Amino acid sequence: MANNKIVKQTFPVLEMSCAACAARVDKTLNKQPGVLSATVNYAAATATVEYDTSLCSPEALKTAIQKAGYDLIVDIHPQEPEEAEHTHTEKLHHQKVRTIWAILLSLPIALIGMFFMDIPYANYIMWILSTPVVFWLGRDFYINAWKQLKHRSANMDTLVANSTGIAYLFSLFNLFYPEFWLERGVQPHVYFEAASVIIAFILLGRLLEARAKDNTSAAIKKLIGLQPKTVTLLTPDGKQQEVSIEQIRVHDTLLVKPGEKIAVDGMVCEGNSYVDESMLSGEPVPVYKEKGSHVFAGTINQKGSFQFKAEKVGSDTMLAHIIHMVQEAQGSKAPVQKLVDKIAGIFVPVILSIALLSFVLWLILAPENGFTHGLLAAVTVLIIACPCALGLATPTAIMVGIGKGAEQGILIKDAESLETAKRIDTIVLDKTGTITEGQPTVNHMVWWNNSEEIRNIFYSLEKLSEHPLANAVTHHLKGEFLPLAQFESLTGQGVKASFNNQYYLAGNEQLLKTQGIRISSEQEETAVTFAHDAQTVIWFADEKQVLGIAAISDRIKETSREAIFLLQQQGIDVVMLTGDNPSTAQAIARQAGISHYQAEVLPQQKAAYIKSLQQKGKCVAMVGDGINDSAALAQADLSIAMGKGSDIAMDVAKITLISSDLTKIPEAIRLSALTVRTIRQNLFWAFIYNLIGVPVAAGILFPINGFLLNPMLAGAAMAMSSVSVVTNSLRLRNKPLRKEKVRTK
Fold it and tell me: Measured between alpha carbons, how far is 31 from 383 in angstroms, rounded to an integer?
């Protein structure tokens, strides 16, 4: 039984400036009593925490994070999206202004430092211009570094503050006390240009990074923008009233005019129209809506006008559910991220140690200019060794990948599922509602006893059944419901009940065999003929004999054959599991292009079959849409549910296909492959950058060719490393999920 005290919430995190910060916040949250799990997404600046409300509270989490030197927003009344967007825009504007000023002031300093050192008072001009850059425009680095020091911690701001602060103070000493070095035969140099240009580059890098990170959440913004702010409400007296969406309640009647967005989920009660549901399904073809049709928030009405009753409002709408799922998924961590987090957690202390070691080695190994070169090397190491690129490598790719999936009608529950999809080598498909349309109809009804009472008993039996095929029978017979006694549902076989002290059965051939009911050769031949024609046979009998059979067919979806062909092209084995008899199963499999199938499979046997495949070393995905598929979905390595299926199946599944179109599966697998490849590229460049950059900054090339890396160049390289990683992730948005249109036989 679910624990009602366990909740999962996502909180914005403030003051994080690098991956090391995210690692520390993550560690702090996971150590709190009552916290079951916590994941911190540096790219999104959020923390998703699952905790026990009896042992923990948002306020307690906030206090713990503040003690660690950061902050957590736990306001129970979150900002409206527009307000949050306004705040974000304002922050970006301030960041932009500071960056521009830093560049404008640093540019003359750099020019003087490189080309015009001979002009009068050059050092003093550089000092005057660099002071506001270091202590005004770059003040946040020092403030944050001080906060970290107070909490016995360190992050990227610590590295920047140490490097620029040391360079500035060293230059200041050399400016006013040059005789200290001249007496020792050393020419004093100032590095005001290094301190100011480094801050300018880092501010520029963070601005570009912020803008790029902003683009990674474009999918969420697009989804949020789908919901209208106001809606036309029809009052009980028939008047039209424009109200805000927050005022809408369940059972309210709403009017939708041509071109308007539908505000909440509901059912059409008057009128008809075509509705663009591409934001849900990814399909561009509008869907016809009439009385009794369901409509969803965020979809766009096209030509007609209609009224509908609100059924789900606020956070209960499908759109809200999708937004929440995408946000949660974007905040989740891929398995590879765990290693990155461990590295980021120790990164800054290691870099501080390397910087100190390089300074000491320069003092020892180069007595003449050891101090100056050692100081430059230490400053450069501190600058170049930014863990930001490392921290952005995985989450930015995940955010873009999951966002792109949502835009295509593929809802991915977490980063692990996105990573798993690439490894799938076997896909198990349910038949009804997955390969087929899930709208079975009775094509033939054959009677051996055709009295009205008998027809009504068959109707009543199927009326009490929950099987999808039962609806087809009741819809066809349209009989009178009779009060049946001792009704019993026999899993995987059919139903049984009594009327006037006589038992009646409706179900598959297996049911009749277990009950000892004889089937004549004529009846058997009739059933076989229907089965060969891909029709499912429902038998109806009393205690002694067969009374009739219903032949039911469920059309294969137009896209199913194409999807199966695409999967087979990718080298994936496709298996169909069905409760149907072998003849019907064979006919459906043949039409769909499937060579491997299992017939007469009970719900519990589906999970066992998947387990047997896993024991053979297969990585298995299960695709289903019904309650009877939930055990199999839970067993599979990757579970995929049809969006038009049951809520239970969707809850269990890791991926939901909103349109119930199987061609979305090969697209999801390709998306997984592209995302994983992007993550690997990002991590490779982030690691390579640091592996090469840090030794070069320390001066490893100096004994070979006299090269010592300029701190300004180190600052530029560091800034660009983060931007390049985010930009590489953004390339995912333009990658096609289908290589080309395929032809199926």
Answer: 31
